[in-house]
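Good day; I would like, with your permission, to put a structural problem before you. A protein sequence and the structure tokens that stand for its backbone fold form the material at issue. I would ask you to consider whether the tokens describe a fold that such a sequence might reasonably adopt. I set the record out below, with my sincere thanks for your time.
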Amino acid sequence: MSISNVEIADIFTRLAELLEIQGYNHFKIIAYKNAAREIAYLGNSIAKMVEEGDDISKLPSIGSRIAKKIVEIVKTGKLNKLEKLQKKFPPHILDLLKVEGIGPKRAKILYDALHISSLEDLMKAAQEHKIRELGGFSDKIEQKILDKTMFAKKIGKRFMYSVAEPHVNAILAYMQKTEGILKVLIAGSFRRKKDTVGDLDMVATSKNPKKVIDYFVKYPDIKDIVLHGDTRSTIILKSNIQVDFRCVQAKSYGSALHYFMGSRYHVLAIRKLAVERDLKINEYGIFRGKQDITGSCEKDIYKTMGFSYIQPELRENRGELEASKEGKLPHLINREDMRGDLHMHTTYSDGQNSIEEMAEAAKKLGYKYVAITDHSKHLSIVHGMDEKKLRLQLDEIDRINEKLKDITILKSIEVDILEDGSLAMSDSLLKELDLVVAGVHDKFNLSAKQQTKRILKAMENPYFSILAHPTGRLINQREPYSLDMEELFKETVQKGCFLEINAQPKRLDLNDIYEKMAKDLGVKFAISTDSHNMQSLNYMRYGIYQARRGWVEKGNVINTLSLDKLKEILKR
């Protein structure tokens, strides 16, 4: 069985939230929340650490009691303490917390006063204006709750890429052990590296499909078998991810892989072009009349149609066919192109490792530089730095740089952009930094005009370098704030600033559509992990995946440059 860090963190988060609704001991609730946060930020698989016998109790915010609970989750897929607690509440009460602006305390008030225990109950109460009558609420809050409830219901059942990833790795490893299987891959949105994944589409080829299918339905992490045929099967994993498995003949493998890869619009465009040439393309092959031309290799489809091979991440029918035909497909960025990471946190704010530990971990990944970007004090929730604390950090960076070899620590900060567009740190100190990462962390509900003006005003500061997580979205949790994206992109270029592609699995911000739009307008990016510990430096791969979907190339990313060239381009 496989379980991701995000899923384990979610179990502890749900436990903490239910305990808070119940009015449980505040310190234990905080302990579970801190553990959830630590696990979510951990770049290495905690399940793998358990399986390999590592002492996870030594991880920050874990300890022996929570470590035992993690072991229980890894071995059984659930936590008995949470299972018992959930029976004391209506089954959907935690859905209320999906609504931005409703925390456990407000959920308790709504439940106690109006017996609201689901999104449907919440929407009905808001529509009937019952919420505004409660203490601590108002008509404005009620309207916001109604709007955000509609968003929460709209999300649907999609899983973050990072949640699906360990399940994909585990089931592929399992299937590759069976006799008779020749090839097997996950297709669909997962292989196209979309930020969220619905069902998993698995394609294999074998001379004995029935034997392979029979082996597939014995996978130990199955919750339910929906279909068990001779050449195809559908299962539901215990994580509630659906896996559709198809075993095809070797001559059809490439065609099936292409068909189930998608996107639907890309495949339909290919099919339409084929019809114009008196060809037929489907999951079984390429046909001229009844003659089967080819289909065993995915690349043959593009070659037959007169296209160069199109990478999976680009297959969205957003101009990739035309670019392929004209020889103008982008040379997509790779992990090996990255020379440094320009957004990470240490114990100076809300990180779990020291400056030196983060730098040494980055060096092991082959980086030549890192930027330490702890939070400014405006966000008291993350123990941000005031000017005195930042000075201490800058002195420490100087001392560490004197003894470090093969990597350089750049002086930086993640400074808050205030509502009026000013930065939450004095220019006299900002000018001493190598670069400034600035971001919006509050006042998300401003109009597009106000929010855009706020950010562009901040960019006028001569020490502003990179806009962090530009739209502020949290996948499946918080919508992006409103912005005039075209104006933002044009002004970013005009002012000599850069946009971040944030690699945190819950952010992946900018999204792929905005990335391509920004790239076409001349914007350059920094792909950074926003790491809060050494392990999450490995999140860089998610940022790379996201960038590739936006047609981003090495030359569009500033932290692919050498240190000298980076410093030069950072000068305003």
Observations:
- The chain has three domains: 5-154, 160-325, 335-570.
- The mean pLDDT is 90.
- The two ends are 52 Å apart (CA to CA).
- Residues 127 and 146 are 7 Å apart (CA to CA).
